[in-house]
Automatic annotation (TrEMBL):
Origin: domain of life: Bacteria
InterPro entries recorded: Bact_polysacc_biosynth/exp
Gene Ontology CC entries for this record: plasma membrane
Record carries keyword Coiled coil: yes
Keyword annotations: Coiled coil
Coiled-coil residue windows: 220-247
MF annotations from Gene Ontology: protein tyrosine kinase activity
PANTHER family, sorted: FERRIC ENTEROBACTIN TRANSPORT PROTEIN FEPE (PTHR32309:SF13), TYROSINE-PROTEIN KINASE (PTHR32309)
Record protein name field: Lipopolysaccharide biosynthesis protein
Species for this entry: Rhodopirellula sallentina SM41
Amino acid sequence: MPLFLLAVILIPAQYDSYGQLLVRLGRGAVAMDPTASLSQTVAIQDSRSSQVNSVREMIQSRAMAQRVVREVGADRILEPRSTLSKLSESLTSFIPSGSPKPLGDLSADEVTAQIQEEMAIMKFQQSLGLFTATDSYTIDLEVRTEDPFLSRDLLSTLIRVYQEHHATALRSEGSYEFFSEQAEIAHARAIAAKDALRRARSERGMIDIGSSQSALRSLLSRIEEDLVQTESEMVSAESEVQRLTSQIATTPNTIESEVVRGIPKKTGSTMRQSLYDLEVRYNELAAKYKEDHPKLRALREQLNASSRI
């Protein structure tokens, strides 16, 4: 029983943090069209299993572990937390060891920091576990340490760092700048086309395309109505021409308008016409002037003289 209690006290508690990555189709899984990329090579489409294995190898790489250690901190990862770890560190401190010496371009402090970082990287890689099911597009991740918050931070940092690395690794260099420039050019062209359309509308008096189309449809309808009416009038005119042509064909060359027998009395007819004209003239002046007006008296005398003849 005492040995069991001693083992419970000395054996450190382990805390696991779990996560899962889904390798799905997207900008990182589908190769870009070579005509829309600045790369000189054409990507070959691989199977999904090879993509999952590639993602797993990148997660297990030393570069990922180093970035996670530098963000979380090597001192925090190497800090002893259990009783056994603290006891082991205390015993190790009593063992004499030489001070680190400069190595190449690195100073003694830089060598110490490098050793601490390498130890933290090794400890993180030992605590990391990856599991992939057969014919699956998911990767299960597990981080086991003696601190639950450390396990959580290590796993979340690993997932975030890998996502950034994944996007960077599968991105064509200079593509963002290229498409940004093309977007600006397209925007400038669209603005120029819009201004040209506005000027064309102003020059032609077009307020709106819809209203212009409606006006054109109304004009076309009126033209069609006028065309139908003109065709009807043309048919009527052709019928009238045919009727007049038939009448001309049946009309004699000479038509008697008046027949005079004997010697015409031209002088008497002329005098009667003159008398009639004098009477008309007298009536017109009588309506305008009084009875004693000189013009009216002269016309009356001339009318009396003509009547006596």
